[in-house]
Design goal:
2 copies of one chain form a homodimer. Chain A is of the alpha/beta class and 316 residues long. Chain A has a 5-stranded mixed sheet, with helices on both faces. Chains A and B meet through helix 7 and helix 9 of A and helix 7 and helix 9 of B.
């Protein structure tokens, strides 16, 4: 009997490798997360990815499944076309590394390579919060703010694979907060978990207890703390400004929100949505038909998404 | 002998109809501009478009050319797919008008319909300042600020044909100037010709002479007037903020600037370009390879572009 085809999907994060075996209808047949080793050299990481891939290939053999491709998602500037990591903040020293070819050769399977945020957006579009739509914008609000864009069913990669840097939309053009990208007034400098903690630290008047983390701030805000509530409200306001920009530029059907900020949904998203609707061009037409939805795939969005990019044939 | 195929392209503006006969390589074989009559009813405009189209069909017969299609560009919310004008600020009372079918029937030729700003962007991409690239953003700075986006050779229309409203990117999120769209802090409220004149009017201290128009302000600025220079510099700053947003979101190869502001290029664009480059994410990679270019098709961008959309087969 012919074994059912699946792909092996690996999502290289900052500290972990998330891995899954995904079939053609998007079901995750098996998944596991492993810490990424300390050796971030090209040889170190590709060796680890190849070992992890081989483990999953073995798993497939035991489960009667046929792995037909490797699907890799990695952070940074990725050329999906060339299959190379051009630059990655999490992989210091990597420049124009042909990761796709190296992994494909090591494991004897065809491979694709995609930016991790693009993969996550495609995952939510294919099988998550944006399923059933054709035009999607995804924001991932975590330590930083990332994103991805699907327009008319097509993943927008841009000329160098760098489309979708939604965290670096300017939301304060003059005297904006310094962003770790080197610019000022970026969304990430107001609406990321790090920004929320940093802003609270600046406004915190007590020395004891020390200023809270974003997670603690959420608990305090939920318990009624007005300073914490205000910082989340501001994050929501600036997120709404950025959302309106994307509505005006891309006219999506759905905005999907993922990442750790989903825990603080009630403190951030209603403010953001209201601000977006008040700013979006011709509110009645554009914003009325637009939905804001929760991401539903959690940490597996990248794994499901990069598999979906393979199964839907939308890799270059 | 077989007559050479051409299309009849009509671009419905606020006050004029620009018309051209365009061949498959983008040469404009004939063009003419006529004032749009005062009767903006559906019957009035479609009747006029049909008469103008018939004149051009006659012209083709005399020139030995074979018109194979009608290509219409119109302002407002256009469904290119359905061939309808959903809403248009210049065509009051029009709602879901099947303009494509009406004109096609009146003239006995197949027809396509596209938003005018999208058509202009496609024109500059196909035969103008963005020729030879695959990822383009176009800003048209005139009385208002419009735009269009090509990503990987594909015109982005959005879910309701409303993508590319670049004039309504927020560039001042708090206490921004009121925009005619009803929102605050839009690019158009700072960098359009109307905004330049309005801001000058507010800062003008003399009662005689009266505050200048945007065109007069350009002449004064060129002659060294510091207030006028400052207002153009501010327009350039905010344009640069919006350009950086699009670089971060879409990662284009080229930004094409068209419209009346091209006359004031030296006062606006160097400031905008410098601001964009300082804000764009990972300046070295993204902004370094990006060009800012002048539009080259002038008033014929929409005519050439809507013809190009037909000849390139990118109509829905």
């Amino acid at each position: 009997m012919k074994r059912q085809p699946v792909v092996i999907a690996l999502d290289l994060g900052g500290t972990n490798v998330r891995m899954g075996v995904v079939d053609a209808v998007g079901s995750v047949r098996h998944s596991v997360s492993r810490p990424l080793g300390a050796d971030r050299s090209v040889a170190g990481v590709t060796g680890e990815v190849a070992r992890r891939g081989a483990e999953l290939i073995d798993w497939c053999a035991g489960a009667g499944l046929h792995p037909e491709a490797l699907c890799l998602a990695a952070p940074g500037i990725i050329s999906a076309e060339d299959g190379t990591v051009i630059f990655s903040p999490n992989l210091p020293g990597w420049t124009d590394v042909p990761l796709r070819a190296m992994i494909s050769e090591a494991l004897g399977l065809p491979a694709i390579l995609e930016n991790d945020a693009n993969a996550a957006a495609f995952g939510e579009f294919w099988k998550g919060g944006g399923q059933g739509t054709n035009h999607l914008v995804m924001f991932t609000l975590g330590t930083g703010v990332g994103g991805g864009i699907i327009s008319d069913g097509i993943l927008l990669r841009g000329s160098r694979g760098m489309a979708g840097e939604l965290g670096h939309l300017t939301v304060v053009s003059e005297n904006g907060r310094l962003c770790r990208c080197g610019s000022n007034g970026c969304l990430e400098a107001y609406a990321s978990a790090s920004a929320v903690a940093e802003i609270l630290g600046e406004r915190w008047t007590d020395d004891s207890p020390p200023p809270p983390t974003a997670r603690e701030a959420y608990l305090l805000a939920a318990a009624g703390d007005s300073l914490c509530r205000e910082v989340f409200r501001e994050a929501g306001f600036y997120l709404g400004v950025a959302m309106a920009d994307l509505v005006n530029v891309l006219n999506p059907e759905v905005i999907v929100i993922g990442g750790g900020a989903m825990d603080a949904w009630d403190l951030i998203i209603p403010v953001a949505e209201s601000e977006m609707r008040s700013r979006a061009f011709r509110t009645t037409d554009l914003a009325r038909r637009l939905c804001v939805r929760r991401a539903t795939l959690g940490d597996l969005a990248g794994v499901v998404g990069v598999a979906g990019i393979y199964w839907c044939g939308v890799h270059p």
